[in-house]
Design a protein that fits this description.
The structure is a single chain. By secondary structure, the chain is an alpha/beta fold. It has 5 helices and 8 strands, in the order αβαββαβαβββαβ. The chain has a single domain, classed as Alpha-Beta Complex (YbaK protein). Strands 1, 2, 3, 4, 5, 6, 7 and 8 form an 8-stranded mixed β-sheet that branches. The longest helix is centred in the first third of the chain and has 12 residues. The radius of gyration is 14 Å and the shape is globular. Bound molecules: 5'-O-(N-(L-cysteinyl)-sulfamoyl)adenosine (5CA). 5'-O-(N-(L-cysteinyl)-sulfamoyl)adenosine binds next to helix 2, strand 2, helix 4 and strand 6.
Length: 155
């Protein structure tokens, strides 16, 4: 298993989560590709997105259902400052992972986190595990716990 995927597996273990990281033969780089490789609905894929506060420069982690688009203005109002999508460099700095494999756990820096309430429609979710070929399955409650996220409507 690639080093980044091993790091995610360790982070899950440290939290006492039984989730198993799996490397797939097919790409899991995007939500659509991941759903195809796994054989699940795109909405069950957890997109791990990083936003940045326009005032504070703070990073915010948002776990979003694969079919949802974040309404940045509305989420900014919930957070308390306007936000923008973080660039690839900032995202790598604060999470410790490259875009396409950002996991919802084991970040380099502790980020204030939010979880898309639409993910709670599903019993099983799939999230990236550090690389564009690694994923793990989880539940909405586990996801919320592992990233210490607040439930929000992101749309
Ligand atoms: N491995 C899959 C899910 S299992 C995955 O990581 N999907 S994702 O949607 O969470 O990651 C891709 C996301 O990264 C895109 O939705 C997009 O929001 C973001 N992204 C892609 N390219 C860039 C970029 N250049 N700068 C900032 N964000 C980007």
């Amino acid at each position: 298993m690639q080093a980044s995927a091993v790091k995610v597996q360790s982070a899950l273990q440290d939290l006492g989560m039984s989730c198993q990281v799996r490397e797939l033969p097919g790409s899991t780089r995007t939500a659509v590709e991941a759903a195809e490789s796994i054989g699940c609905e795109v909405a069950q894929i957890v997109k791990s997105l990083v936003f940045q506060g326009k005032q504070s420069g703070e990073g915010y982690f948002v776990a979003v259902s694969g079919t949802n688009r974040v309404h940045e203005k509305r989420l900014g109002r919930l957070i308390g400052e306007p936000i923008r999508k973080a660039d690839a460099e900032f995202t790598r700095q604060v999470t410790g992972y490259a875009i396409g494999g950002i996991p919802p756990v084991g970040h380099a820096r502790k980020l204030k986190a939010f979880v898309d309430e639409d993910l709670f429609q599903y019993e099983v979710l799939w999230a990236a595990a550090g690389t564009p070929f690694a994923v793990f399955s989880t539940t909405p409650d586990q996801l919320k716990t592992m990233c210490e996220g607040a439930l929000v409507c992101v749309t």
